[in-house]
Amino acid sequence: MRVKVACVGGGPAGLYLSILLKRQDPSHDVTVHERNPEGSTYGWGVTYWQGLLDELRFHDPESARAIEESSVRWNEGVAHVRDLATRQPGDNGHGIGRHRLLEILADRARELGVRLEFESEITAENLPDADLVVAGDGVRSALRTHHADDFGAQLTEGRNSYVWLGTTKVFDSFTFAFVETAHGWIWCYGYPFSDEQSTCVIECAPETLTGLGLDRASEADGLADLEKLFAHILDGHPLVGRASSAGGSAQWLTFRTLVNRTWRHGNLVLLGDAAHTTHYSIGAGTTLALEDAIALAEALRESADLPQALDRYERVRKSALLSQQSAARYSAQWYENLTRYIHLPPEQMFALLGQRHSPLLPYVPPQLYYRLDRAAGRLEALRRLKRWLGPKLARGAHARTLTSGK
């Protein structure tokens, strides 16, 4: 059945959905509306893992090939704590510049006959005439905000402050660096996304931010201070920010976790960050958005009845997201409680950094957890106990979160 679809937001989710719909049926009428000029996207690099690349190859080999060719890879992680460092093998990670990713997806969408309309701002007052309107316009979605009560949108502010930066230092692995200051700890996550640049996300507690004066500094002064703090990993390379104007302040943010009671209202459906967010420390935002697009396209293919298709999409994705949302919540809490782990020997701290998604970790003394985890690698009975007890604690914590509204 031919359908007319308007995708609001030219991010990865909206563009990839348009690609999949045109591949399923070239007669579909698909338009992507993006409020910004073409090529004006802000952002450094995004991460993804081998599992997503395998999915992309299955659903559209052409764009997957271009994405893989434009990505850099790593399979190690390194953690710096004061003047100590430890390196460990990890999963195959990939980084790609956000600008390049959008360029690849836009080119592929055009090739398949999708209309891309840039500088086209869609609001609730000027909705396109379409069978389906897809709100893929991010966490600040104007369409979701207008219907916030209908969607049951709930935003929860995190505690820590963070800033998203770039650097010309090309890290050779996923890099963590933890620096102790007179006002508390400050740390960064760094990863390459091209042969010339890396992303560098810097995070700290609010009292550290204010104590160091970073909340009041101009972007230039703030970057200079951060370059001194992280000189041991930057090797003389600068940090690059985004000031809104000359002398503007650095954009320190607090992460907002978004959930919605329902993802559809009439013929309007939410996609990607407009529907849900997961803390950046698990590096899953782009992956989850693209998986939303895959699930929505499959639901529309399986059912000619639009309400049925949208219900199926929401049910499938909400179920799939549960484990990622739990992992993101525990990951954010790990960093918010950094002092619980930071004084361990580096190899133990790094091991628990890798276990930060575990619902068991907050309830077990860190050194005991480390010893149990090492033993569980050797003893099947302990592995079974972890697999049984972890989900029970996660479900209990999730229920308490829903009850308390936090």
* Distance between the first and last residues' Cα: 43 Å
Helical percentage: 40-55%
Number of helices: 14
**Helix-strand makeup class:** alpha/beta
Largest sheet report? 9 strands, mixed
Mean pLDDT: 91
Gist of the model:
The chain is α/β, with parallel strands linked by helices and 406 residues long. 42% of the residues lie in helices and 25% in strands.
Explain what this protein looks like in three dimensions.
By secondary structure, the chain is α/β, with parallel strands linked by helices. The chain has helices at 12-24, 50-59, 61-69, 98-111, 142-146, 148-151, 206-211, 219-229, 231-234, 285-302, 306-336, 346-354, 366-376, 380-404; strands at residues 4-8, 29-34, 45-49, 72-81, 84-97, 115-118, 132-135, 153-167, 174-181, 184-192, 198-204, 239-240, 253-260, 264-265, 268-270. The strands form 2 sheets. Strands 3, 4, 5, 8, 9, 10, 11, 12 and 13 form a 9-stranded mixed β-sheet that branches. It has a 6-stranded mixed β-sheet with strand order 6-2-1-7-15-14, with helices on one face. The model is unreliable at 244-248 and 397-406 (pLDDT under 50).
Which key features would you list for this structure?
14 helices; disordered C terminus; single chain; 406 residues; 9-stranded mixed beta sheet; alpha/beta
What is the fold's blueprint, element by element?
Layout (H helix, E strand, L loop, with lengths): L3 E5 L3 H13 L4 E6 L10 E5 H10 L1 H9 L2 E10 L2 E14 H14 L3 E4 L13 E4 L6 H5 L1 H4 L1 E15 L6 E8 L2 E9 L5 E7 L1 H6 L7 H11 L1 H4 L4 E2 L12 E8 L3 E2 L2 E3 L14 H18 L3 H31 L9 H9 L11 H11 L3 H25 L2
Helix pairs in contact: 1-4, 1-10, 2-3, 3-4, 10-11, 13-14
